[in-house]
Design a protein that fits this description.
The complex is a heterodimer of chains A (589) and B (231). Chain A has 16 helices and 22 strands. With 589 residues, chain A is α/β, with parallel strands linked by helices. In chain A, helix 5 crosses helix 15, helix 13 packs antiparallel against helix 14 and helix 14 runs antiparallel to helix 15. Chain B has two domains: 98 residues, Ubiquitin-like (UB roll); 129 residues, Fumarate Reductase Iron-sulfur Protein, Chain B, domain 2 (Orthogonal Bundle), CATH 1.10.1060.10. In chain B, a hairpin with a 2-residue loop joins strand 3 and strand 4. Chain B is of the alpha+beta class and 231 residues long. Chain B has eight helices and seven strands; from the N terminus they run E-E-H-E-E-E-E-E-H-H-H-H-H-H-H. The longest helix of chain B has 16 residues. The chains are: A alpha/beta (589), B alpha+beta (231). The interface between A and B is large, with 62 and 58 residues. The complex binds flavin-adenine dinucleotide, iron/sulfur cluster (2 copies) and FE2/S2 (inorganic) cluster. The site of one iron/sulfur cluster (SF4) has 14 residues of chain B, from helix 5.
């Protein structure tokens, strides 16, 4: 062993203690494996805690439902970019993982007959698009909080070993490309270590902080993506970022789609319910890309509200105080605190706000990371798994349906956990670490330690967010994107010349933010290069210069490689596991 | 806006100090957390925890002008200047506004914070009536921020022995769940002069909870159940 860093060994490492990481760790801990779960924050502070609306599953508690309908809605929502085998797997498994969660103690809302309450959500329909359906399993408007705490509690019971406030820095791969663990920083002491494992699983969540206006937490900086990219792993479909229609104007805080599910409507400055024009059937409950574009259109055409005509209104007072207080209590709290309005009486000012990353680290349904090798477009990368928002299976394709992310965490967290258990890791030994293990991380830290002058991390990060916001927004075009590529490359260069003044080893949050900036930059590059190259409109990628979907040329997943910003493509899997394919067709709501 | 902030870095400082800041805020800076982030953009050594910035993750609890609360949901307009910020009282300080929460979580873990029910589950969900479910309201919403326990004199004196309001509120969350089958063990685990009965109903906890929860009531309910069980 050449590296100067101390080493600790585990069978398996999970990076991330959000919903995906903790659903996976549960399988491992209950199977008795030695597993370490790392998190930048105490597990229940992970951003899954902020999810509000619900978990999609065709339980049929409110009216007849079928997993095949859910599957159709998900494929249509994805604008046919989702892989139909993975989507079938997820929708079929949905009821089981929701029941399991209930058995773990999840405090779901209930119907009079004692079953789980389900609410309507955007893009979810009965009988292949006929009418809206109630499929979102909800715990008031705190579903993510209830789910994350339940999963943490179950992990306490299973005696999962957590490493809290540890930040993973870089992947370790050997000469064969196999993944052997990570380097990590213990924030409280400033110690850097090698954590060696036979299997490493990323569950690092989203990266919404590459945009200026975001519903995401500060910690959502795309660390898993940055680590993967630096280790030569491609990132898939990164041009597809979901704008949620209803972020509080100016604050970014989310107002769940569940508000429209419960009957809330969007109004323009003329008091018109404009979604009736854009989506005559599902109206305000059309899928998110459609609603966000419609809002953007209304604002562009001068029908926005407020002094600057730059937002629309979400009206829910007609639901009455009883429904609002029972089903949407946190929404009321958020509106009062962040928008100064009590929704029992007044509408909430809202704008489309960056919310969710459909792309990520490419995986199969077992969570194994896959990449093209020779003639195989999806060869397994030994030793590495990814689950949750940082992964791309791909079930969300070009646009995720609300409630399908929490579902994704449960289904694929569980299946990846089971797959790792099936590897019989205890019988295997650790492969020797490469000589240069840890050097990349040490070099990154050494640069920061040596820099005595330079730009502040906050400044570069803020400029990056502004550039992404103005060059990669709801509507995109060649000119904007090409200029955006240049800006992001300049920002990448600037990110290498930052300096921090905090020199302490103890809980150095300035150092953490500087390390996070490297990951934001990788995520932003992947996004803008992929968006620039895709010359069509599909789901969340809306190009005014290429307004139509182009299945002949673009029914493909993008793969971005950090090395030279190279792009490659692989076909979408239109073949489900057991049912007939849903071939691409025009998408109307 | 003027601030006076508790600073302590064990590597450099022999003892804690209060540092004065005066900073021009932006009109968009609405909450105390916005101001802290602006301060940090000028002095990157200022250390505090934060994540969700909307009052659900429980990261940024601190003592604000003498009262525990979350920086991200404390409106700047409500604060008298200079705004004095200190770490949560009663827990060891790691650095600046960051405290060591081990003792707090140890107490939370001590109450078996998970549903216990070893009956084989049905194929579908376990049924629970809306009324039974409603008994969990005001309990399950806890974000483990520790505002309450670190405002509780009984917890300051006996953090190793008294479960504290957050832990007890969560204990009652499982006691109150119609699906749980561990009632007797749960009550046994709390029937102790320190673990439960150190609470003297001072209500500091209720006063500071940023989620509007009422640990004192939950504690009262547990006490009543223990008393009832005895007769
Ligand atoms: C406001 C909001 C509301 C939402 N509502 C819904 C909803 O109603 N329904 C739905 O289906 N979806 C919803 N979503 C989406 C969904 O909540 C997220 O996609 C999902 O929770 C992500 O879960 P995750 O487990 O992948 O990541 P997270 O929960 O974000 O967890 C990431 C974990 O990784 C850790 N981590 C990250 N980097 C590192 C590192 N370098 N080292 C160590 N640890 C690291 C973090 O500490 C954290 O523990 C919502 C999203 C938002 C923002
Ligand atoms: S009511 Fe009990 S728990 Fe709450 S602050 Fe007072 S002594 Fe502590
Ligand atoms: S009861 Fe309230 S104050 Fe106490 S930890 Fe829970 S949310 Fe925080
Ligand atoms: S930052 Fe999450 S509670 Fe304040």
């Amino acid at each position: 062993m050449v590296s100067k860093l101390p080493v600790r060994r585990f069978d398996a490492l999970i990076i991330g203690a959000g919903g995906a990481g903790m659903r996976a760790s549960l399988q491992l801990a209950e199977a008795g494996l030695s597993v370490a779960v790392l998190s930048k924050v105490f597990p229940t502070r992970s951003h899954t805690v902020a999810a509000q609306g619900g978990i999609g599953a065709s339980l049929g508690n409110m009216s007849e439902d079928h997993w095949l309908w859910h599957m159709y809605d998900t494929i249509k929502g994805s604008d046919w970019l989702g892989d139909q085998d993975a989507i079938e797997y997820m929708c079929k498994m949905a009821p089981q993982v929701v029941y399991e969660l209930e058995h773990f103690g999840m405090p779901f809302d209930r119907n009079p007959d004692g079953t789980i309450y389900q609410r309507p959500f955007g893009g979810h329909s009965a009988n292949f698009g006929e009418k809206a359906i109630q499929r979102a399993c909800a715990a008031a408007d705190r579903t993510g909080h209830a789910m994350l705490h339940t999963l943490y509690q179950r992990n306490v019971r299973a005696r999962t070993q957590f490493f809290v406030e540890w930040m993973a820095l870089d992947l370790i791969r050997d000469a064969d490309g196999e993944v052997l663990g990570v380097t990590a920083l213990e924030m409280e002491t400033g110690d850097v270590m090698i954590l060696e494992a036979k299997v490493t699983m990323f569950a690092t969540g989203g990266a919404g902080r590459i945009f200026a206006a975001s519903t995401n937490a500060f910690i959502n900086t795309g660390d898993g993506l940055g680590m993967a990219a630096r280790a030569g792993v491609p990132l898939q479909d990164m041009e597809f970022w979901q704008f949620h229609p209803t972020g509080v104007a100016g604050a970014g805080v989310l107002i769940t789609e569940g508000v429209r599910g419960e009957g809330g409507i969007l109004l323009n400055s003329q008091g018109e319910r404009f979604m009736e024009r854009y989506a005559p059937n599902l109206k305000d409950l059309a899928s998110r890309d459609v609603v966000s574009r419609s809002m953007d259109q209304e604002i562009k055409e001068g029908r926005g509200c407020g002094p600057n005509r730059d937002y629309v209104l979400l009206k829910l007072d007609h639901l009455g105080p009883e429904v609002i207080n029972k089903r949407l209590p946190s929404i009321r709290e958020i509106a009062i605190k962040f928008a100064n309005v009590d929704p029992i009486r007044e509408p909430i000012p809202v704008v489309p706000t960056i919310h969710y990353m459909m792309g990520g680290i490419p995986t199969n349904v077992h969570g194994q990371v896959v990449l093209p090798q020779g003639s195989d477009p999806a060869a397994v990368l030994p030793g590495l798994y990814a689950v949750g928002e940082c992964a791309c299976v791909s079930v969300h394709g070009a646009n995720r349906l609300g409630t399908n992310s929490l579902l994704d965490l449960l289904v694929f967290g569980r299946s990846a956990g089971n797959h790792v258990v099936g590897q019989n890791l205890t019988a295997q030994s650790h492969k020797p670490l490469p000589k240069d293990a840890g050097e990349l991380s040490l070099a990154r830290l050494a640069r920061l330690d040596a820099a005595t002058s330079g730009e502040s991390v906050a400044q570069v990060a803020s400029d990056l967010r502004k550039s992404m916001q103005s060059h990669c927004g709801v509507f995109r075009n060649q000119q904007l994107l090409a200029a955006g590529v240049q800006k992001v490359l300049e920002l990448e260069a600037r990110s290498q010349r930052t300096a921090i003044s905090d020199r302490s080893r103890i809980f150095n949050t300035a150092r953490v933010e500087a390390l996070e900036l490297d990951n934001l930059v990788e995520t932003a590059k992947a996004t803008i290069f992929s968006a620039e190259a895709r010359r069509e409109s599909r789901g969340a990628q809306a190009r005014s210069d290429y307004p139509a979907r182009d299945d002949a040329n673009w029914l493909n997943h993008t793969l971005w490689y950090r090395d030279g910003n190279r792009l490659a493509y692989k076909p979408v899997n239109l073949k489900p596991m057991s049912v007939d394919s849903f071939p691409p067709k025009a998408r109307t709501y | 806006m003027r601030f006076r902030i508790y600073r302590y870095d064990p590597e450099q400082d022999a003892k804690p100090r209060l540092q004065e800041y005066d900073i021009a805020l932006d009109p968009h800076d609405r909450m105390l957390l916005d101001a802290l982030i602006r301060l940090k953009s000028v002095d990157d050594s200022l250390s505090f925890r934060r994540s969700c910035r909307e009052g659900v993750c429980g990261s940024d609890a601190m003592n604000i002008n003498g009262r525990n609360g979350l920086a991200c949901t404390t409106n700047l307009k409500t604060l008298a200047e200079p705004v004095e910020l200190r770490p949560l009282p009663g827990l060891p300080v790691v650095r600046d506004l960051i405290v060591d929460m081990s003792q707090f979580f140890k107490q939370y873990h001590s109450i078996k914070p998970y549903l216990v029910n070893d009956e084989p589950p049905p194929e579908r969900e376990r049924l629970q009536s809306p009324g039974e479910r409603e008994r969990l309201d005001g309990l399950y919403e806890c974000i483990l921020c520790a505002c309450c326990s670190t405002a509780c004199p009984s917890f300051w004196w006996n953090p190793d022995k008294f479960v504290g309001p957050a832990g007890l509120l969560n204990a009652y969350r499982f006691i109150a769940d119609s699906r749980d089958r561990d009632l007797n063990d749960r009550l046994d685990n709390l029937e102790d002069p320190y673990r439960l009965f150190r609470c003297h109903s001072i209500m500091n906890c209720v006063d500071v909870c940023p989620k509007g929860l009422n640990p004192t009531r939950a504690i009262g309910n547990i006490k009543t159940m223990i008393v009832k069980r005895a007769v």
